[in-house]
Specification:
120 residues, mainly alpha, 2 domains, globular
């Protein structure tokens, strides 16, 4: 239950960031706005990376965490792929950051699978 509350708090934080950036006038941001958004995103990144690091009680909790992680990975890959396709079609350019994140996600998964197989 604590993890669900933690997720919801992080989701609210992300929603506030999204609302703040979406409601802003499309003028260049001031340095204080940029620093505040970077700070909140850094806190969000640290918080989301620590979610689920607590040892689970039984196999069912581990299976639920595995399933949630798998769904998050698939959603991330799909979103990044759609972003790359949109960028290619709309701007006729390849966004290097989206591509780099997609490559890192897949390489991390491959290395993790190799490492887990090697440990057996």
């Amino acid at each position: 239950m604590r993890i669900i509350i933690y997720y919801l708090l992080l989701l609210v934080l992300l929603g506030l960031i999204g609302g703040y950036t979406a409601s802003a006038v499309h003028d260049p941001m001031s340095m204080t706005q940029i620093v505040s958004i970077v700070g909140v995103l850094a806190l969000y990144s640290v918080g989301i990376s620590l979610v689920g690091e607590i040892k689970s009680g039984d196999e069912r909790d581990m299976a639920h965490r595995f399933t949630a992680s798998r769904h998050a990975f698939i959603a991330g890959v799909a979103t990044l792929s759609l972003g790359l396709l949109y960028d290619l079609i709309q701007n006729h350019q390849l966004n290097n950051w989206l591509l780099a994140v997609l490559i890192v996600m897949n390489l991390t998964k491959i290395v993790s699978l190799i490492w887990q197989d090697y440990k057996k």
